[in-house]
C-alpha cells in the first residue's frame, strides 16, 4: 500500500505514474471507509484526489504554500501531509478536524471554514513573501461554488495587482452544495465546453492569466499544468474540470445529497441513521409553501444552502419563482430581500447564523436604515448548533441585535416560532429576524396567534416574587425548571418571563419588578458580551435590584461538548438555583 | 432658463436637442455655484449631467425605477425630479440630503450611501416587479469605482438569474475616489479603448448583455443607447464612458482631490477654508513612514480611501510597495491583512468605522480565529465623525468588540494613540484594532511608552472614593471634567479611570473599587446597547455598587447636532454630575 508510506509530501514525489494511479485508488478507498463510518464532506474530496496528488508532486509544501478554500476539499491534502493515519485507522479518525488548521500541521496556514476566503488569504501570503523578497509559490485552491461570494470576487479582482507569483486553482465540479446560481457559471460552462478557449473569460476579464485542464481527475494532465504554472511571475488561474463524488456511484449520481454525508452503508449508499425527527427547516418550508399559495409576492431566499429553509429540490421545483437561491452570496441575499420588500414583495431569507455574519453592513445599511419589512430566519444560532470553531452560531446577538430598527425575536416553542413567522410576513413596519431555538423542537401544546407589533412587551408566564427569571429562546425551558426548583426549595414562587424580543427591553415590566424582587436573572443561548442580558442589567444598574446574567464567555470554542460548556459557564439548573439562593436565601 | 421649469421628469421630455444641451450647461452652473458655497461630491456629478438628462428623457420615473449607487452621482437626478430649488437657491440648499432618500422624493427608493449596493437593491425591485407581474424598467446606476466591492460583484453575478428586465448603467469615469485598483479595471480600459468590442468582457462573462457608449457626456448618444435598452426582457449593462469633473477645469485636472470638495473660489478652484489643523490621518502616515524605513515588512493598507491613513498621492509614491490600496473591497482588505500577518509581514489597515461594517465575518473568521497580529486603525468611530445616517461611525463597539481574541484599544490623546500603534506593530500575539478618538486632537503633553500586552489593565488616573468614573477614549476629558466638578461640589475626590481596553474588563481593579465606591459610571462615544459600559455593569450586577452607563441610544441619527445628541442622552458634564450627586449626595 502506497498511502501507508506517505509521511510527507516528498514521499509523493518518489512515485511513478502507475504508483500515483494506485495511490489515488487507495485514497478514495480510505475516504470511503472513513466517511461511511464517520461522515464528512464527501463529494468535494472525492473529486480532488488526483489534483491533490498532482499539487504535492509539483510543489514543495510547506515552502510552497497551499490555501484550501472552506477546507471541504482538504481531506486529501491532509492525507498527503503527514496525517494519513486519521484516514486509515478508525482509532485515529478524530485526530484531525474537518478543516485546515495550522495548529495541526505546518502544511496548513489558516483555520478556515467559511467559503470564498482563500484567494484573499493567499494574496496576503504572497504579499508577505514579496515584502520579504522571498520566492516560494503561493497556491489558492477554490471550488466553483465559492466563486460567487463577494470576498472571493474581491480577491480575484485584487490578485493581478500583486504582479507576482500566485496560482489560483479553480476546482470546477459544476456544483455548489446544490446546483450553482449566477451568471458566472454560464461562463465556466463555456470554458469547459470550449476546452478553455472561449475568448470571453471571466478570469482574464479580471486581469488574470489562465490555463485549462480538461480532465481534472487525470493526475498526469494536472501535473503538466501545474508544472507550467510553477514559479510563474504573475497571478494565474488553473481551471480544472473535476467530477464531484468521482469514484463512488451513488455520489456521482446524486451530487447535492452527497456534498456532505453522515455515516452510510458502502454497498448501497444508504444512510445508517434515518431521521424523521421534526425539525424547524421542514416546518418552515411547509408553512411558507402554504402561505405562498395565497400571497404570490411571498418569496423564500437562500444563499447556497436551500435545505436550511427546508426547500429540497422537489419543493424548489414546486414553488418555482417564489424560491430564489442566490448562490453563495449572503450580502446580495440581504440586499435583494430589502429591495424586494421596497418593491412591495414579501421576502423571507433563511440562513445559518454563522453565515449571516457576512451581512452586518447589508443588515444595517440596505435593510434597517430603510426599515424595509423583510424577514430573516436565523438557524443554528445556538450552542446546540454546529460545534466547529469556524461554524459557531452563538455570536449573533451582539452582532445583529444592536442594529437600530431591527426586531429580533426569540421563540421558545414551535408554535411561537410559527406565530412569529406568520406575524412577520404579514406586517409592513419592520425588518424582522427570528432566532430559531436550539436543541430539539419543543411544543407548547396550543397554537398561538399574536400581534408582535407591540414591540418589547415581554410575556409573564408566572407572577411571583423575590426572584425573577428572564429566560430567552432556547433556554426558556431551563428558566422554567429553575423557577420550579426555587419554588420548591423556598416555598416562594419566583416570576418567570419569556422576553420574546431580543432587541429591546420591556421597561414598564422591569420597573414593576423592582417592587417585590431582589434579584433578576437572565439566561440566553449566546455570549454574554454585548448580549441580551446586559441590556437588562443596564436598566437596573442604578437600582437596588441585583442582576445575574447567564450566557457564554466570549471565546472561540471548537468541537465542544454542550454539557461541559453549560457547566463551565454556570448554566446548569443546579448552579443557577444555587446562585439565586445565595441572594434571596432559602 | 430651462432648469427652472423642470418640475418633474416629464418636463425633460419636452425639450429638444438644443434645449437639452442648454439644460446640461445650466445644471453644471447650478452645481458649480452650490458646491462652491456648500461643498459636496463634485467630480461624479459633473460627469453624470448628460446621462441623467438622457435617463429621464428615455425612462418614465417613478414608474421606471432608478437606483443610484452610493448617491454620489445623484445630484443631477435630484435636480430633474422636483428638487431643483435645492440647487438653484442658496436658501434651499439644505432642503435635500446628499443621498438618495425615499422620504424626500417618490423618485428615490432607498436611503443609501455605502458603495456597491445598487445592483442588488435593483435586483430586489426587479424581482418584486416580476412577482407582481408588472412591467416597468428597473435601472441601477453604478460607478466604476464601486464595481470592485463584493456586494456589487455578487449582484452582477446574480442579475442574469432574473431573466427579466434590469438595466445596469456603468458610469465609467476611470476613477474611484483615487485611482482604481483591481484587474477588472484593465478590462474596462480595454472596453473603452476598443469601443466596447473586446471579446473578453467582464460583464458578458458574468452572463450579462452589453452595450457601450463611447461618449458618456453626449446626451444624444446616451439617449440612443437607453432607447435600445428600454423594455428589454433580460439584464443588460450599458457601459458609458464619462469624464469625472467634466466642465470645470480644476476638477478635470485633479480628479482625486475634486471627487469631493469643500467650499471653494470658482475662479481659481482654491479652497475657501484652509486647514492646517493637526489630525490623526497625517500623524499616522508620518509615524508609519518612519517605521517603514526600519521594517520592510510593514505595509499600510487602504480600501479606496488612502488619505484616511494620511497617504496622499506623493506619500503613496514614496513608500512604493509598502502601501497597498485594494480598491473598494473592505472584506478583501481584512483577509489580506490576516494573510500578510500569517506570512510574517506587518499589516496596518486604516478604514472609516462605517465601512469597517463590511468586514464582520472577515474580522471574526479570517483574522480573529487565526489570532493573526494585524493592526486595524478605525477612524471616525465617534459622534464627532460623519453625521449622515449612512455614514455613522459609532456602532463599532457592539459590532467588533464582542469578537473573541481581538484587542480593541481606545486612546485618549495623540501620545497614547501613537504608543498603542507602536505597540501593536511590534507585538505578534494579537489582532489589534485602535479606535481613533473623535473631536480635535488632544495632547497629553508627554510621549508614552507602554507595553499594552498586559491585557485589560486599566489606568487609574486618580484614586478617590464614593464615585468612580470610567471614561473611554474620546470622552476621557469629559470624565476628567466631571471628576473635578464632583470633587469641587462634594469635597471628596472621585476615582478617575482611563480604561484603554474596550474588549475586556479589569476585574481586579473593579473588585477593589467595591470597597470605597457607591457608584461607578461609564462614558463612551458609542451606542449603549452591546457597548463597553454594559460589560462593567454586568460585572457589578450582583453587588451593591450602582452603575450608570453613558452613551447613545440605539437609533439611526441623521445630520445631527453633536451638542443636541449629547444633551438628549444626558451626556453633558452638568447632567452627569447631577446623576452622580443624586446617588452619593452632596
TrEMBL record, chains A, B:
The keyword Metal-binding applies. The keyword Metal-binding applies. One of its GO terms (cellular component) is cytosol. Its cofactor is Mg(2+). Gene3D superfamilies: 3.40.50.920, 3.40.50.970. One of its GO terms (biological process) is thiamine biosynthetic process. Its EC number is 2.2.1.7. Pathway: Metabolic intermediate biosynthesis; 1-deoxy-D-xylulose 5-phosphate biosynthesis; 1-deoxy-D-xylulose 5-phosphate from D-glyceraldehyde 3-phosphate and pyruvate: step 1/1. Residues 278-443 form the Transketolase-like pyrimidine-binding domain. It comes from the Bacteria. Keywords: Isoprene biosynthesis, Magnesium, Metal-binding, Thiamine biosynthesis, Thiamine pyrophosphate, Transferase. Pfam families: DXP_synthase_N, Transket_pyr, Transketolase_C. Homodimer. NCBIfam families: PRK05444.2-2, PRK12315.1. Belongs to the transketolase family. DXPS subfamily. This is 1-deoxy-D-xylulose-5-phosphate synthase.
Amino acid at each position: 500500500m502506497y498511502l501507508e508510506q506517505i509521511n510527507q509530501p516528498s514521499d509523493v514525489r518518489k512515485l511513478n505514474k502507475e504508483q500515483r494511479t494506485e495511490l489515488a485508488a487507495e485514497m478514495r478507498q480510505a475516504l470511503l471507509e472513513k466517511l461511511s463510518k464517520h461522515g464528512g464532506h464527501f463529494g468535494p474530496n472525492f473529486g480532488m484526489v488526483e489534483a491533490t496528488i498532482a499539487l504535492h508532486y509539483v510543489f514543495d509544501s510547506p515552502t510552497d504554500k497551499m490555501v484550501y478554500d472552506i477546507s471541504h476539499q482538504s481531506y486529501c491534502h491532509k492525507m498527503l501531509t503527514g496525517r494519513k493515519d486519521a484516514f486509515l485507522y478508525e482509532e485515529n479518525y478524530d485526530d484531525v478536524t474537518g478543516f485546515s488548521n495550522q495548529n495541526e500541521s505546518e502544511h496548513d496556514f489558516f483555520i478556515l471554514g467559511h467559503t470564498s476566503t482563500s484567494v484573499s488569504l493567499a494574496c496576503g501570503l504572497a504579499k508577505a513573501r514579496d515584502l520579504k523578497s522571498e520566492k516560494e509559490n503561493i497556491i489558492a485552491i477554490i471550488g466553483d461554488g465559492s466563486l460567487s461570494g463577494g470576498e472571493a470576487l474581491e480577491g480575484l479582482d485584487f490578485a493581478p495587482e500583486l504582479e507576482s507569483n500566485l496560482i489560483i486553482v479553480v476546482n470546477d465540479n459544476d456544483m455548489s452544495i446544490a446546483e450553482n446560481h449566477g451568471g458566472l457559471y454560464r461562463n465556466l460552462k463555456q470554458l469547459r465546453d470550449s476546452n478553455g478557449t472561449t475568448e470571453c473569460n471571466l478570469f482574464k476579464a479580471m486581469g488574470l492569466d489562465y490555463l485549462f485542464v480538461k480532465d481534472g481527475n487525470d493526475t498526469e494532465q494536472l501535473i503538466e499544468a501545474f508544472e507550467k504554472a510553477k514559479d510563474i511571475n504573475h497571478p494565474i488561474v488553473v481551471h480544472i474540470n473535476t467530477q464531484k463524488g468521482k469514484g463512488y456511484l451513488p455520489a456521482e449520481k446524486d451530487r447535492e445529497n452527497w456534498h456532505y454525508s453522515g455515516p452510510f452503508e458502502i454497498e448501497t449508499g444508504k444512510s445508517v441513521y434515518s431521521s424523521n425527527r421534526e425539525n424547524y427547516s421542514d416546518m418552515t418550508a411547509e408553512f411558507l409553501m402554504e402561505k405562498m399559495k395565497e400571497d404570490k409576492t411571498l418569496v423564500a431566499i437562500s444563499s447556497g444552502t436551500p435545505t436550511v429553509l427546508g426547500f429540497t429540490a422537489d419543493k424548489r421545483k414546486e414553488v418555482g419563482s417564489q424560491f430564489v437561491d442566490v448562490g453563495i452570496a449572503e450580502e446580495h441575499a440581504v440586499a435583494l430581500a430589502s429591495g424586494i420588500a421596497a418593491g412591495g414583495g414579501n421576502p423571507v431569507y433563511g440562513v445559518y447564523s454563522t453565515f449571516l455574519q457576512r451581512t452586518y453592513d447589508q443588515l444595517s445599511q440596505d435593510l434597517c436604515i430603510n426599515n424595509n419589512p423583510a424577514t430573516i430566519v436565523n438557524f443554528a444560532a445556538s450552542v446546540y448548533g454546529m460545534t466547529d470553531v469556524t461554524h459557531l452560531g452563538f455570536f449573533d446577538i451582539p452582532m445583529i441585535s444592536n442594529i437600530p430598527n431591527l426586531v429580533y425575536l426569540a421563540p421558545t416553542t414551535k408554535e411561537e416560532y410559527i406565530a412569529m413567522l406568520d406575524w412577520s410576513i404579514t406586517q409592513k413596519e419592520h425588518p424582522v429576524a427570528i432566532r430559531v431555538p436550539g436543541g430539539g423542537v419543543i411544543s407548547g401544546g396550543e397554537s398561538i396567534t399574536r400581534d408582535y407589533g407591540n414591540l418589547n412587551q415581554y410575556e409573564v408566564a408566572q407572577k411571583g416574587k423575590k426572584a425573577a427569571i428572564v429566560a430567552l429562546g432556547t433556554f426558556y425551558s431551563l428558566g422554567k425548571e429553575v423557577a420550579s426548583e426555587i419554588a420548591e426549595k423556598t416555598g416562594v414562587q419566583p416570576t418567570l418571563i419569556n422576553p420574546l424580543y431580543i432587541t429591546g427591553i420591556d421597561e414598564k415590566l422591569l420597573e414593576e419588578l423592582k417592587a417585590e424582587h431582589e434579584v433578576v436573572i437572565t439566561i440566553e443561548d449566546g455570549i454574554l458580551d454585548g448580549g441580551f442580558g446586559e441590556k437588562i442589567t443596564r436598566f437596573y444598574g442604578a437600582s437596588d435590584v441585583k442582576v445575574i446574567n447567564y450566557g457564554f464567555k466570549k471565546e472561540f470554542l471548537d468541537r465542544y461538548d454542550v454539557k461541559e460548556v453549560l457547566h463551565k459557564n454556570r448554566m446548569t439548573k443546579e448552579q443557577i438555583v444555587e446562585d439565586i439562593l445565595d441572594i434571596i436565601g432559602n
